[in-house]
Every structure is written in structure tokens, then in C-alpha cells.
Amino acid sequence: MKISYNWLKDYLDLTIEPRQLADRLSLAGLEVEEVRERKVNFPQVVVGLVLTVEDHPKADKLKICRVDSGEEDLAIVCGAANVAAGQMVAVAKVGATLANGMKIHKTKIRGVESEGMICSEAELGLSDRSEGIWVLPDNLPKGAPLDKALNLENDFIFDVAVTPNRPDCLSHIGIAREIGAILAQHVQMPEISLTEIKEKADKHIKIQIESIDGCPRYSARLIKNVKVGESPGWLVQRLEAVGMRSINNVVDVTNYVLMETGHPLHAFDYDLIRGKKIVVRESMERETFTTLDDKQRELKAGTVLICDGKGPVAIGGIMGGVNSEVSINSTNVLLESAYFNPERIQISSRYLGLSTEASQRFERGADPNGNIYALNRAAQLINELCGGEIFAGVVDAYPRPVQPRQILLQVDQINNLLGTALTAVEMSEILESIDLTVENNRVTIPTFRPDLQGVADLAEEIARLYGLENIPPSRLITIDYQVGMNEFDVFVNQIKEMLAGYGLQEVITSSMVNSQLWDELTGQKMYPILNPISKDLDGLRNSLLPSLAQVMEYNRNRKYSNLKLFEINRIYLPPRDFHQQPQEELHLAIALTGKRDGNLWYSSGELFDFYDIKGLAQLIGDKISLDNCQFISYSDSVIQEDGLALVQGNDQLGIIGRLSLKIAARFEFDNPVYVAEFQLQKLFENRKIDKKYQPIPRFPAVERDLALMVDENLAAAELVEVMRREGGSWLTKVEIFDVYQGKQIPAGKKSLAFHFNFQSLERTLTEQEINEQMNTIFEAVNHSFQAKLRE
To answer: pTM (2 decimals)?
Structure first.
């Protein structure tokens, strides 16, 4: 929030040095992030009139302007797109020095002599940035020094970081109220004196509120015979000092009152209001409306709309529409001052991706009982600056008035909280300095302070205004808040270290994803977010894979195609009833794509395949000592048909496989993507905790190989299970080292080659003993699966 020091002088007698005032404000809880001096002394910068504008013969984007500077006509080369003949402009003559230190010289630009510079506000140090040159009001005298012509004076701009719970400080009067409490001064509010005509406003405009929840109050005034035009210099300067640009005198008045009182207003062209009535209703799903920025916006159901007799004219509390805006041809103005439900404005603003000065105040909580003062203040200024006649009375729809709340002033409790010894009188004086009323130990909270809800809030106000530096320190009991990590957290860290050791990179992504996109790709519904920060982030993910896919897409677009990624984060499983909270689980997801060894010179260039992701899953299982787990066939809308699920007993611990072609095509992945996702809590619960030491055997192991022909649909795991069962206590390892289908193998069959290790802890095994064990194994698989020896 930008605050002008000179503007504050309208309400307070300020003699304190600006930077000292900034320090005092920060100590009172309103952090001033920056104090910027706005200097307006411009030697050799005068008001000029642009006489002619011609194209530069050697540059498409440059213009040659002839400018009357009062004493002489100057030829100036200008690159601004908005320069035009007939404009009054700020001209820096030869010898002038601009705010950025640039000194103006007579020079040639692309072969054409330039005798000065037509300036923007940014070049004069009056704003952070400008779009083109500064076009001045037409009534300024040519040749006059710029600061004198505009009655400018040096100013200091405070950039105040207003916390979300203090909407009352989003205005100059709000900040003045705080300064008044600090400096023991009373705020002088602008006096309002209206001259109304006899004709009553309620005869010409009706207000109907259909959505009381969305808009508890709507007030309006009617002003006729208004002359819309340029604003006076003082108004333009005040708005530009706080970062707002001038539009026309009527709109500028509404913006001025907004920055003064903190209450947003809107001006309609009354002649464009059809049916001469205002209806406040909620939008229908996918209803559209074109806002002042000339963009057609699709609305979410429940958005508060301001309508006339035929349709919408504004999005309540956010932005007006092009179909009712005040223009240079407007003569009759309908002035709106309303109060909107903060939650509804916040939801609509986030959904539309549209944040305005008005929405920022309404979503934090404007004053429902401050809109009439702001309305009358704006009517008075329009009458003074734009002419016009004010109709008698305010048309005010306020079906459920908001009453100020009361909080009991509990002196002892507040002193205990603060460590102070203040009396009830001292506390009352502090609270009354910020316009709270104290009577019979009850504090009446004005409706412009929605943040004050209880005794602790009163204690906070007393502490910051009394001065934290004035509260004596007290001895505190030292408490050790260091808490050791629990077993599950240690387990998760071990998984992270393990995967990083394997060369994978950890990523961290948002839990919010595009639910519509993921639904279209997989058919899986996500838990909806009622108040999404944007349309593209409207669901809570039910898997980590959508997020990893986006990370891979981001890297692919930047020419990084060889990726080994993992993420450990939360997913949200939607319940049957979306009115219930989702079930949260901590998952591990892995994604591999591109070349296995990257672009190293000695790399074979082989791409990751299915067995890379399966190998990682097996390594994780080995490291955490998963016993009796197995892979079974698995597929869904995310994993292709050749996927596997890792199960132990009745628990599915995770899934692995290739990302579906549909998803890969949507993200335009050039290479296959192999993924895995595990439920970490189940991995944690099924890990083997007790580990026993086994000495290295003293006796040598005996190795044997066996090649079998079996049915092509037989799972190798079934064979291995039988082999382990029948192999006896000497069998220590069974591994598959070859799978083959092709020549010499009958159709419908496949060849599987196994490697066996036999070893005894007590003695050296004999050839005969090993042969007997191998015969037993073969007979068992032959009986169970009709397995044949491959010749």
C-alpha cells in the first residue's frame, strides 16, 4: 500500500520527519518497507505544445516532433508510440538533468538533430514506470516550468506492508488514524457538504438484492448533467503518487475516495442502465461477461453480479463492464457504494485470476457501515470538479444491518498477557485513540475493525500502541522444544538418501493440479478445491505421477531429456462423499526417461527400459528388508498393460511400469517413460526390523544351471516359488538369467534359464547330493507345470 506523506497532512498536523514517522509506524505494527522521496524540482523542464509529428526517414519507430516550448520551437526526436500533435507535454530542454542522472544535450539521432527530450513520468522520477510520454492537461501555460505549472511539491511515498487482517489500513485515513494514535492527535476527517436538488434519486433508480449473502448492502447516488473530462493537476498527481493513472475526472474521483477512505466505489453511465434498476444476483454456471479491460470472462456459479433490467453490468466487488462505463460522452452518473461478502469476493477473484484495488479491499473486509460516507464524499467531489446536480437522498438497500460487536475489557487478563500493570483508564485511553469506544468496561468495536474478535486482540492493540519497548522484560522458563525424529521420519530420510545415492534427483511439486486434464487422461476423479488460486490448479492430486509428468515436460522443453527423478510428497484420495475430508497418504514416485547413462562419451546410448524401474523397486525392497513380497501383473489408466504391482500378503505396496501412451502423447514425451509409485506407510509397516547376523560360510558353494521350456503365459515367479520350496535347506539362491522365444522353441512356449546356488554351513556338499536336489526340483516343476528340459 503506497501512502503519500503530503496527503496525510490533510488529516493530521505533521511536523515529524518522514523517515522517523516510518520507524514509529513500523514499531506500532505497520511495517514500512520503503520510504521514497518524490522530488519535483525540474530545472529546464517546461510545458510544451506538440505542433507536428512526422516519421523519421531512417527509423520506423522514431518520430520527428516540432514542439513549442514557449520561447522557441524545438525539433525533438521521440520514440514514444503515444506522441501526437496537439498534446501538452513535459519538455526537457538542452542542459536539463533528469532524475536518473541523464543530462540533455543537443545531439543527432539517426542523422536528425534533436534539441531536447519529451519526457515520461518515470524519466522525471514521478513513477516507477510509464507507458509512453506524459500527456499533460490542455489548460497549462506553454513555456511554464513544469513544477510551477502543476503546483507540484516534494513528497515522500511510504510503501506500507499491510497484513491481511488489517483492511482498515488500506487507505490514507486508516493510516492517519494509526499515526494519530502514535502522535496523540485527532484525525480531521474531510467535511462533507452536499447541495442536493429537490428531485429524489429513488424515483429514478431501484435496487433489488437477490443475493443477500454475497452483497449485504448496496447504496447508490444519482448525479445528472456531469461534464466528463480531464482531472485537475492536484488530483492527477495524488493518484500518480500512489501508483494509479488518471482516466477521467469521474473515475479519478472514485479512485481518489478509494485511496482516501479505503472503500471501493464504481461509477456507471446512468443512461446505459436498462430498466433504471439495479439487481444484485448470483451468476449461473459458465455465464459470461465482458469486463472493463475488454476481456470476456467465464464466471463460476455463485459469482456476485451487478445487473440492470436486462443483464450484468459489473462483477460485484471486482470490476465493472464495458457496457456501462463512464466515457467522455456520459452526462448522468450512477454512483455505487456497496459491501460484499469477503469470502465470496476472494473465491471469485481467484477463479477469474483478476485482482483489483477493489477486490483486494473487499476480500479482506471493507466497512459495511462506511459506504455512505465514501459515497457522499465522492458525490461532493464530482459536484465540485465535474459540475452536475446531485439528486436528493441515497438509495440504500441494507436488509440485515451489521452491528458493532462488544468485548469485555478484562484488565487483569490483559496485564497477565503483556506483563504490564496498566489501569483500566490507561487501557481505555489507548483503545479510544484508535476510535474504539469504552464504556462500563465494555469495548465497542467499530465495523471497520473486523480483526478484533476477543480479549487477546485488545491486548495486542494495547501492546503495540503502548510501545513494546515500554513493556518491562520478565524472566521466562526455558523449555527445550527440540524433538527427536520419529521412526517413520527416519525411514523416509533413509529412502531419500538411498535414491539420491543411486543418482536420482529429488523434486518437490505442488499438491494442486489441473483436475480436468487428469480426468480426461485417466478417468480418475480428484478432490476439488473450492477456492482455487487459478483455473488450472483446481484439484488435489490423487497420485504424484501428474506432477512428475509436468516436471519432465518442463525439462524436455528446455532440452533436458535424460531424467532420473523422484518425489516424496502427499496425495489426497477422494472419499465417496466430496463433503468429507480426503484421505492423505505420503507416497514415493519415481520416473525414468531418456538414456540410461546420459550423454557421456562412453555411453552405449541405450534408453531406460522396464527392468530399470523394476530393478529400483527390488533395490528398495532389499534395502528395507521386505520379506515374502512378490510382483503380480497390474495395469490401469496410468500404467500400460505390462505393469506390475508389488504386494505383500493383502497389502499392495506400490506399482511399477511404463507410463501410458495416452499420457505420454499428451505431454509429447519423445522417449518411453517408466514410473513407480509406492505407499510409504505400507513400506514402513512391512519392512523387516529384526535383523540377525549370519557368518560367511566356511565351505564353498556349488552352482548349477537349468534351462526349461514352459508355456509362454506361465509367470516365472510361480516356477521360482516351487523351486525354492523343493530345493531344500541348501538352496541359497535362484536367479533367472535368460528368457528366450524364437527359433528351436515351439510356438506357444518359451525358454527360461535358471542359476542355482547350493551351500551348507557345516560341510562341503558332494556331487551326488547336488544332483539329487536338482532332480527333485525338475520333477516338481515338471509335475506342476509340465516343464521340459531344453535340449
So the answer is: 0.66
